[in-house]
Amino acid sequence: MCTSEICYYQARRGADGTDWVDISALPPGSMVEADLSKSDAMARFHVRRPEGTLVSGAAAFALLWKALPAFRTVGQIASLPGIVHTLELTYRAFLPIRPWLQRRMIARMRNAS
After folding, report:
1. Residues 52-60, mean pLDDT to the nearest whole number
2. What are the backbone angles phi and psi of residue 27, rounded to the nearest 5°?
3. Dihedral (C-alpha) 89, 21, 50, 14: value to the nearest 10 degrees?
4. How far is CA 88 from CA 28, 53, 65, 79, 83, in A?
5. CA distances from 41 to 28, 36, 47 (A)
6. What span, in angstroms and rounded, lies between the C-alpha atoms of 57 and 61?
7. 3-state DSSP helix/strand/coil percent for the chain, to nearest 5?
8. Are 6 and 68 in contact (CB under 8 A)?
9. Percent with pLDDT over 90 in the chain
10. Coil, helix or strand at residue 50
């Protein structure tokens, strides 16, 4: 599910201005960057701001959305203090069920073939 979502964003206008890092091929236990391990990067969505600050979760999605013209307004709304906090709570509630959803999606794709 993550890969298809990232591919979707990468295909959007304005995505070429973003450096995308595929961490899935890194060996277990490796570091993506000095302040981000592969396991942490796989657990949550991360975006690095232009000045270098690492952001994760709902705030990271808001930053990505603001960088893509088609999502810019949604990103600006999502960045508002009360909104980003609510989205973060929703994101945290989603993370534990994400593996189950991924397994279901894979099973459905296999059954459709």
Report:
1. 95
2. -65, 150
3. -90
4. 27, 18, 15, 11, 9
5. 12, 6, 10
6. 7
7. 60, 10, 30
8. no
9. 65
10. coil
Residue 78 and residue 1: Cα distance in Å, rounded? 22
Length of the chain: 113
**Closest alpha carbon to 88 in 60, 47, 48, 50:** 60
pLDDT digits (tens, 9 = 90+) for 65-89: 999 999 999 999 999 999 999 999 9
AA letter at 22: D
SS3 56: strand
Per-position b or e across 7-34, b if 16+ CB within 10 A of its CB: eebeebeebeebeeeebeeeeeeeebee
Q: Looking up tokens 């979760």, which residue turns up?
A: 57
